[in-house]
Amino acid sequence: MRPILKRNKNYLLALLCSSMSWVGICQGDASTVKAQFALGLNTPSSNGFVGSFEGNAINFPSINLGLQYMFMPKLGAKLDFGYNSFSNAERSPEFKLNYTRINLQLVYDASKLLSFSNKLGLFLHAGPGSTTIKPLGNYGDNKTTFLNTVTGLEIHYGVSDKLSVYLDTSYILGFGKEFNPISSGFGSFNGHLLTVTIGASISLSGCYYCGD
Fold first, then answer.
1. How are beta strands 96-109 and 75-87 bridged, if at all?
2. Under 8 Å between Cβ of 44 and 53
3. Smallest Cα–Cα separation from 126: which of 75, 191, 189, 89?
């Protein structure tokens, strides 16, 4: 009787894991579903400003939040949100703005290029999205929204099976229209953005019972 109950128990556990894998609760691989958080710096392109306006070469903060799902061993996708803030250079009229974006990106695991260490991982990511620029202070009416494409590279260091820290370098190409009239671009931005961030990637998947 006990062997039958044991077999049925194992069968039910396996079935439960299979049926719930789409939410990452019973994924067999801890790298399947991950949440990511990163903090760092940004550099706006100089041609994204109008007239005598110019942004600082290096600005803080850049914040990225993402949810990643690997639907194949080497290929996946992630939805991520980015917040960036930058302000005027010393010789520019005073301004400050918030740059926010949301992107859906493909992710490719190129870790085989770093085969000399099993703790290092290399990921390439790219995909389209939308950018919203919100000037603050005197230029608050010059808000604008445009499409973008992100390309980037992440280098991960595995702390444990569930946690890695990583360095991400991303370039965000903005497809903003020319400001017309020019005054609509005062304190605003329609160019490209480089970000460099350091973050943590935490696994939300992995089944602790399915292998029993």
1. antiparallel
2. no
3. 75
- Using one digit for the tens of pLDDT, what is the confidence trace for 4-56? 334 444 543 444 344 334 333 334 476 799 999 999 999 999 999 999 999 99
In angstroms, the CA 8 to CA 134 distance is 59
Helix (H, G, I), strand (E, B) or coil at 130: strand
Using CA atoms, how far apart are residues 68 and 159, in angstroms rounded to an integer? 18
Residues in the chain: 212
For the entire predicted model, the pTM comes to 0.82
Dig out the tokens for 61 from the structure.
């903060």
**What is the longest distance spanned by two Cα atoms in the chain?**
84
Are the C-beta atoms of 149 and 173 separated by less than 8 Å? Answer: yes
Backbone torsion region of residue 122, taken as left when φ is above 0, otherwise alpha when ψ lies between -120 and 50, otherwise beta: beta
- Give bridge partners of residue 150 from the DSSP assignment: 127, 172
Phi, psi of 201, deg, nearest 5: -120, 120
Give the position of tokens 């005062």: 186
